[in-house]
Amino acid sequence: MAASAARLSLLALFLLTFPCAMAKKTYIVQVREQSVPGMSTTSRDWHSSNLQTLASGAADLLYVYSDAFHGYAASLEPHQAEALQSSDAVLGVYEDVMYHLHTTRTPHFLKVEDEFGLWPGAGSHLKDADQPFHDVIIGLLDTGVWPESKSFDDTGYPEVPARWKGKCVSGPDFDPSLCNKKLIGAYFFAKGYIKNLDGEMTEVQTPRDHNGHGTHTSSTAAGSPVANASLLGYARGVAQGMAPHARVASYKVCWKEGCTGSDILAAMDQAIRDGVDVLSLSLGGGDGPYYLNTIAIGAFSAMEKGIFVSASAGNEGPRLGKLANGAPWIMTAGASTLDRTFPARALLGNKMRFAGASLYSGPGMGNKLVGLVYNVGSASSWCMPGTLDPRVVGGKVVLCDRGGNSRVEKGAVVRDAGGVGMILGNTEEDGGEELLADCHLIPAVHVGAKAGNVIREYARTDRNPMALVVTSAQEVNVRPTPVVAASSSRGPYYQSMQILKPDVIGPGVDILASWPDDISPTELDIDKRRVPFNIISGTSMACPHISGVAALFKAARPSWSTSAIKSALMTTAYVHDNTRQPITDATNRGPSSPFAHGAGHINPRKALSPGLVYELTADDYIAFVCSLNFTIKQVQSVVRRTNVTCSTKLSDPGQLNYPSFSVVFRPNKKVVRYAREVTNVGEARSVYRVAVEAPSTVAVRVRPRRLVFRKVGEKQRYRVTFVARNRTDAAQGGSITWRNRQHRVRSPVAFLWLESFSSYRFTCGEKSSCM
Fold it and tell me: At what angle do helices 43-55 and 78-85 cross, to 10 degrees?
């Protein structure tokens, strides 16, 4: 994870200590809106002139921001940044931050195969000749796009909406004519990234995707239907995105080494100006305070303009408190499994067999067991390059521990050393019981920690250990499903612990979607295979599912605010799997906590008719930011309003009218009181009664216990009192549900005893790397 921006108050001391070591860095400079003479063609000239004057020396202007942010990005020496900070016209100067990526059955699994027939009772406007689903535009900030993919076919599409202001830019390998009525925008942003590399850019500057991640997420969100799609025969079927008739705009901000905040902010600025309806960001990093977080600041501006922002939670699970993109105006997505697996088995010489997962598609090992090797020792047990002795592993199956290098690279290391098969075993610290299918280069099976430990003991103690790896076709309707991915990042989000994050979970494990023609499915240089579709995992894959569903809502409920859409998705999410048991955690197969699954797994069909919603305005979010003990200047940096005085602020961040609760008990605070307001979007003359679920360690009282709505659009308030009875070291969960015959409006509640996490917080402090 990229480090947080350095505090400028320390720059003077640094300058005195190291006066001759001042290399230029990229800084994002936020200026007071009234200081800028209108965002016109002269704006860049004004910023450039202003920068040269205030910085007292040569400075390189990279970007001018106007819609997501007021200000610019520039390459400066630290003393120039310090000089800018002292100007009354400047709200803040922040060092650029490097972010990273969070890396065909899902429409069926989510029951959104056909959006034109999806929404019963949604109104005749959904099936009229204008087909409003074609008018929704999803902007994706990622690694670019592969325009030749069939997922971006525009056959039958009407003309691009007139409100669209974007375009496709050219690159050495990308002609704007490659765009069409489906792929309507394609950009690249690399100025901040190039400066971060000291100008040594070796990659082609182009909107084209040479990584695969961006093409995969774009087609997951809005890919056109493609028949007979598969990865080397696996997951065969019709592949399509969540909103297959929506338009796609690609904003390439990520490169080989990551994605800089200045480039991300420039892309958000462009996307807002272009007119996107949904912004999807499958990227992020350690998030520092909101006023240093370019994604949070840009997303706030997008929210104000009615743009729904969805972002991935990160892949730093299962440890608590590692979540990214936790601002309440962002919908934060965690990852879970589908009801489809790609099974494989490990058979041992002692007749034991263990189920696992694999996407290996080449010649098998046959049916004869061979020798099993386990090289104890960090590098060799991880099967790192150059650590395996061909004299020892030749012709045998090698057991490799997960961690240290990529899962598919381990198989390549085994193959290059003469091994004929691999068993990839999780540890309790790395993966737990989570199983991921990979497109391996040799027969391989991925097994959980419990199975891995048994196999390790067998390999160590048996005089002649033997093994056989067997792969097979996919299985569907798997039980239990969904399961929270072990790697999916968990809350609490330490910048605002009173807001429960992630918001929801969605499909993020073994997801099939489009892939560039010039990249192997393993992304290894030695892998010469090429595929039009690939199967990968991560919260990066969950995020575009949420983004696509949000796009459907933008068409089905055009008058709804972004907070209403978010509320509907959260309060109708489910927390029981297809065996009717609480959703489990892949780490240990025990029940997952709200800090892992948020409100639960999205249920798009039910979300269309939620009954009640929790509405939020920009002013509500401003009152929330004002409650975070920031300075006025820092608050103004987040909300981009220089007239904010915080005369109105929440008494506690948890008072935000959010669809969930995160209740933090402190040593001197055993009682927490919150209020909420719900808006009736269901039937007139409806009555809701409350149902409370809580652990024995907490008493919960809701007043009133009955809400009566006489008309649609009416608002009602209720109050909740949480009383800690007994302290516990574990985060616990419950819920507050308003229900009648038609609706169940469920708000999850997470309970956290702060003293249980005080040592962790003390260790991390404000470091973004601890997020």
Answer: 110
First to last CA, the chain: 9
Q: Assign 3-class secondary structure to 437-488.
A: CCCCCCCEEEECHHHHHHHHHHHHHCCCCEEEEEECCCEECCCCCCEECCCC
CB neighbour class for 710 (10 Å; exposed up to 12, middle 13-18, buried from 19):
exposed
Chain-wide mean pLDDT for the chain?
A: 89
Q: Is the peptide bond before 704 cis (omega within 30 degrees of 0)?
A: yes
540 has catalytic annotation: yes
- Candidates 142, 263, 274, 510; catalytic one: 142
Compute the distance between CA of residue 542 and CA of residue 337 in angstroms, rounded to an integer: 10
Listed in sequence order, the DSSP H helices in 28-182 are 43-55, 78-85, 106-110
In a domain, 3, yes or no: no
Q: Kindly state whether residues 91 and 161 are assigned to the same domain.
A: no
Tens of pLDDT, residues 271-311: 999 999 999 999 987 668 999 999 999 999 999 999 999 99
213 is catalytic: yes
Distance of CA 96 to the CA centre of its chain: 21
Here the tokens at position 249 are 């705009």
Write phi, then psi, for 741 (nearest 5 degrees): -65, -30
Quick count: other Cβ atoms within 10 Å of Cβ 18? Answer: 10
3-state secondary structure 262-304: HHHHHHHHHHHHHCCCEEEECEECCCCCHHHCHHHHHHHHHHH
Q: What is the pLDDT of residues 243-280, one digit of tens each?
A: 999 999 999 999 999 999 999 999 999 999 999 999 99
Q: Are 182 and 247 in contact (CB under 8 A)?
A: yes
Measured over the CA atoms of residue 430, residue 436, residue 438 and residue 442, the dihedral's sign is positive
pLDDT tens digits along 308-339: 999 999 999 999 999 999 999 999 999 999 99
CATH code, domain carrying 703: 2.60.40.2310
47, 70, 100, 213: the active-site residue:
213
d(CA 766, CA 174): 42
Let me know whether 220 and 316 are in one domain: yes
- Give one DSSP letter per residue of 109-125, joined into a string: HHT-S-GGGT-TTS-GG
Cα separation, 372 vs 397, in Å, equals 5
Residue 35 among the catalytic residues: no
Report the CATH number that the domain containing residue 416 is assigned in CATH.
3.50.30.30
Provide the token pair at 283. 């990227």
Distance CA 637, CA 631 (A): 10
pLDDT at 123: 39
Rounded to whole angstroms, the Cα distance separating 694 from 735 reads 7
Beta carbons within 10 angstroms of residue 573's beta carbon:
24
Q: What are phi and psi of 265, to 5 degrees?
A: -65, -40
- Set 358, 540, 567, 768: catalytic member: 540
Write out the DSSP string of 532-598.
Answer: SEEEE-SHHHHHHHHHHHHHHHHHH-TT--HHHHHHHHHHT-B-B-TTSSBPEETTTSSBPPHHHHT
Q: 13 lies in which domain range?
A: 8-95
